[in-house]
């Protein structure tokens, strides 16, 4: 793979037809028409009430690596003419991108991104932009529901083994953005500065076995010796009550935590809390894991759980592993365009969007309008949702940090009307309306 | 990221606890015990009848890049002691791996991989191995059902935009392995030599619009001029019947194909076929796309569809985006080990597996047994399922090509009893039994 400043090119993370359309458009001259492409979701998956915009930072970074070097051009040369290859060789995106800030909420038809420039320079970004947004928005949107359900308890993302090895750090990032506290994934720790976390696996306990059977105490003693008394011991390899007793015997009542990874977590959490308290380990935390999703997390709200470890359901978007974002041409040389065939109507034209809120901060409506024609907002306060992300091909200064985007998610969740935080399937938390010019 | 021969290190695609367990095991001396870890799925997702082993080639390649250079050690040094860091600096996997050949079928409890070596050298591979297998097996298993449903018609994978940008080429590879014919993803074309394919998007037709509206004929003419009459024109941007008429008017009856991406594909395929035939375009192929999964593909079996383009449902594993593979310690210093806590019992010991078949080739049973103790097979022919993948840390010679693995999938599907190819939910196609020593 070609490298850009030592990093891999992203140019081939692209569908072939983007480049054949480019070739045809260069040949007939239409490639240079000024276009707007819009990224939006026609609907939220599975009766969700809101979505969380995620991936913006990753997409912008990938955009700076979208370059055709010799290795990329070698592949393109198999099906493209010389004119197109020359154009790709010199390619740098030189247009503008506006979009919802990373971490903002979105709803059906929210114009999450507006990509403007020549047809040629915009069309070839479609696959990469959608891949990043469809993945990251799906994970962050599921993660935010889990964070809501956890009601302030600590959340550790530990789903790396359940998803593609390079999707894993992106999932960790999206989860952290949505309010998770830490990740098990070391590449996410390095790349994004997310706090790392981890406990121990059953294998470690089983390793401490002999021909006479298992020595759980030996495993616990080893872990405490190596990692300190603040560590979390996994107590469910054999019998949980015995595991808890052994853990406190070995580590003393200052033990950091115990993890339960199987069984009826609600019942077990209560029993283990009682047992820990009776042993004087009143500050030892209870970590639960094992097929937790937002519903299971919510169901444990009344139980003495201190930390949730979430794996599979997080990285598969809890039933919605892709966000359904599309990248549609909406304007050509100042004229709105839209397809008209059945079931997939789109609204043409470059758009802006505002979100209306009561004085309390609770949002009531998303209004999408032809760019430059923001409607009157009546009694409500209005927030412009588009921020400039790219100007003339350059990232705008003052891109938010991941921590700032994380704060934006938290503020967004607080702004939802109360139905918006319901886990059950239903309508979007606020309607999206179109204001004609 | 550290690079190995110019390629990125995979060492941090790992959960933190693998390395803290390593530290504790190095400190107490248990790190050097001889262990077997086994990769298997406790069950197939969603009532599936079989799974397809995929990712072996990718995993083995990633294994050769599992090295801790300065960048990886810098992260590890934040929570590990010097002894562990020194050990990681020198790390090379030096053990053995046996496994089902890539492209073979698997069933619940099939010992898909058997990883043997010291605890230390094996445990830290868990996350990476599972990430690759859980992703690739999920995609290939879904793809094989789609290929069965298509009953020999051409299949193009075009789901890149619906999944993480770097999961996309791995999805293309898994789909091709399972019998898809081509991919839209250019990185998969480059990296794995999969045939590329593509048509055109609605944006290209809409680009050819003026203030007087759309000029579909102009778009079609441009595409045919640039890409030849063998191209596939997208005819559903406006009115499909008009689109087909315009397509043949512009391209003539030798047009390669038309694509329909919306509407009732079954009805439309019939109408379009009639229209094409009446225009003399009897060899123009009909390509359908738009939210196709194995059920929709099967439902179109009676219709004159020539090519299926499959996106979303493929890359999300058609409802099962992760394969549920686990990596379990099953033997320590020659003694079988297993956890005993509720609901997740494992069977200890290093294992082998054979698959029994009738003389006709139809398989009847998968038999798992303690390694070295293959049972008698009675009237059936038996095939050993484990092949050596790694010996003393080195990949075995004669690793199969992707084409060879693809052939193995095709042969596997033919070997299933007829119920095994049913799309409906049910039991695994053959039972997995354990033969005790």
UniProtKB/TrEMBL annotation, chains A, B:
<keyword id="KW-0808">Transferase</keyword>
<keyword id="KW-0662">Pyridine nucleotide biosynthesis</keyword>
<dbReference type="InterPro" id="IPR006405">
    <property type="entry name" value="Nic_PRibTrfase_pncB"/>
</dbReference>
<comment type="pathway">
    <text>Cofactor biosynthesis; NAD(+) biosynthesis; nicotinate D-ribonucleotide from nicotinate: step 1/1.</text>
</comment>
<feature type="domain" description="Nicotinate/nicotinamide phosphoribosyltransferase">
    <location>
        <begin position="155"/>
        <end position="347"/>
    </location>
</feature>
<dbReference type="Pfam" id="PF04095">
    <property type="entry name" value="NAPRTase"/>
</dbReference>
<dbReference type="InterPro" id="IPR036068">
    <property type="entry name" value="Nicotinate_pribotase-like_C"/>
</dbReference>
<protein>
    <recommendedName>
        <fullName>Nicotinate phosphoribosyltransferase</fullName>
        <ecNumber>6.3.4.21</ecNumber>
    </recommendedName>
</protein>
<dbReference type="InterPro" id="IPR041525">
    <property type="entry name" value="N/Namide_PRibTrfase"/>
</dbReference>
<feature type="domain" description="Nicotinate phosphoribosyltransferase N-terminal">
    <location>
        <begin position="12"/>
        <end position="132"/>
    </location>
</feature>
<comment type="function">
    <text>Catalyzes the first step in the biosynthesis of NAD from nicotinic acid, the ATP-dependent synthesis of beta-nicotinate D-ribonucleotide from nicotinate and 5-phospho-D-ribose 1-phosphate.</text>
</comment>
<dbReference type="GO" id="GO:0004516">
    <property type="term" value="F:nicotinate phosphoribosyltransferase activity"/>
</dbReference>
<keyword id="KW-0328">Glycosyltransferase</keyword>
<keyword id="KW-0436">Ligase</keyword>
<dbReference type="InterPro" id="IPR013785">
    <property type="entry name" value="Aldolase_TIM"/>
</dbReference>
<keyword id="KW-0597">Phosphoprotein</keyword>
<comment type="similarity">
    <text>Belongs to the NAPRTase family.</text>
</comment>
<dbReference type="Pfam" id="PF17767">
    <property type="entry name" value="NAPRTase_N"/>
</dbReference>
<dbReference type="InterPro" id="IPR040727">
    <property type="entry name" value="NAPRTase_N"/>
</dbReference>
<dbReference type="GO" id="GO:0016757">
    <property type="term" value="F:glycosyltransferase activity"/>
</dbReference>
<dbReference type="InterPro" id="IPR007229">
    <property type="entry name" value="Nic_PRibTrfase-Fam"/>
</dbReference>
């Amino acid at each position: 793979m070609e490298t850009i400043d030592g990093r891999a090119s992203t140019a081939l993370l692209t569908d072939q037809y983007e480049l054949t359309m480019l070739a045809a458009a260069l040949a007939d001259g239409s490639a240079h028409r000024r276009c707007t492409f819009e990224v939006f979701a026609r609907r939220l998956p599975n009766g969700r009430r809101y979505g969380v915009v995620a991936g913006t930072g990753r997409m912008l970074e990938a955009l700076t690596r979208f370059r055709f070097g010799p290795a990329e051009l070698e592949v393109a040369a198999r099906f493209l003419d010389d004119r197109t290859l020359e154009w790709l060789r010199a390619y740098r995106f030189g247009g503008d991108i506006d979009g919802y800030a990373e971490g903002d909420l979105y709803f059906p038809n929210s114009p999450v991104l507006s990509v403007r420039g020549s047809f040629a320079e915009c069309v070839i970004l479609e696959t990469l932009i959608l891949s990043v947004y469809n993945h990251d928005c799906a994970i962050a949107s599921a993660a935010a529901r889990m964070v809501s359900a956890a009601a302030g308890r600590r959340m550790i993302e530990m789903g790396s083994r359940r998803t593609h090895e390079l999707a894993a750090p992106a999932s960790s990032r999206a989860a952290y953005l949505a309010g998770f506290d830490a990740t098990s994934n070391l590449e996410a720790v390095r790349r994004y500065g997310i706090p790392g976390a981890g406990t121990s696996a059953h294998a470690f306990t089983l390793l401490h076995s002999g021909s006479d059977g298992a020595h759980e105490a030996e495993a616990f003693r080893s872990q405490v010796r190596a990692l300190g008394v603040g560590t979390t011991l996994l107590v469910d390899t054999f019998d949980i009550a015995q595991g808890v007793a052994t853990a406190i015997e070995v580590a003393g009542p200052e033990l950091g935590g115990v993890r339960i990874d199987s069984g009826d977590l609600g019942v077990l959490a209560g029993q283990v809390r009682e047992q820990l308290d009776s042993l004087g380990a009143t500050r030892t935390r209870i970590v639960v894991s094992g097929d937790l999703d937002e519903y299971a997390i919510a169901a444990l709200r009344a139980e003495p759980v201190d930390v949730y470890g979430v794996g599979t359901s997080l990285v598969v978007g809890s039933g919605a592993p892709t966000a359904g974002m599309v990248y549609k041409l909406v304007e050509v040389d100042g004229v709105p365009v839209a397809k008209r065939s059945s079931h997939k109507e789109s609204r043409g034209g470059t758009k802006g969007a505002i979100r209306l809120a009561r004085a309390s901060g609770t949002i009531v409506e998303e209004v999408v309008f032809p760019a430059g024609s923001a409607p009157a907002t009546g009694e409500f306060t209005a927030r412009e949702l588009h921020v400039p992300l790219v100007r003339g091909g350059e990232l705008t200064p003052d891109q938010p940090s991941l921590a700032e985007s994380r704060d934006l998610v938290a503020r967004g969740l607080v702004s939802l009307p109360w139905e918006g935080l319901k886990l059950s399937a239903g309508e979007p938390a606020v309607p999206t309306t179109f204001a004609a010019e």
